């Protein structure tokens, strides 16, 4: 897995001199929901409507839990995949 980074100034309290830089991972781009569902449909041999329904159900349920302030862990999905 490769990752792209950019350097940013580390925030410091007012009146202090900047001390260092820190790295942040940069995204390579954005994959649309439509493109994501099309790939799942092609690779998993599931009916397209089923893929769309499952993604919509996950999106709705995930949004509900996040809106309530929960952290949701989905095995195999991690920010490290950025």
Q: Could you walk me through the main structural features you see in this protein, from its secondary elements to its overall organization?
A:
With 82 residues, the protein is of the alpha+beta class. 39% of the residues lie in helices and 15% in strands. The protein is built from two helices and two strands, in the order E-E-H-H. The protein has helices at residues 33-44, 48-67, and strands at 4-9, 21-26. Helix 1 crosses helix 2. It is elongated, with a radius of gyration of 19 Å. The model has no long low-confidence stretch (mean pLDDT 85).
Spell out the blueprint of helices and strands.
Elements: E1 4-9, E2 21-26, H1 33-44, H2 48-67
Antiparallel strand pairs: 1-2
Helix pairs in contact: 1-2
Quaternary structure of the protein:
single chain
Rg calculated over all Cα atoms: 19 Å
Mean pLDDT: 85
In terms of structural class, how would the helical and strand content be classed? alpha+beta
What's the helix count? 2
Morphology call? elongated
Order of helices and strands: EEHH
The helical percent reads 25-40%
Q: Point out poorly predicted stretches.
A: none
Strand content: 5-15%
Number of strands: 2
Main beta-sheet annotation: 2 strands, antiparallel
Give the end-to-end Cα distance, rounded to a whole number of Å: 9 Å
Biggest β-sheet: strands ordered side by side in the sheet: 1-2
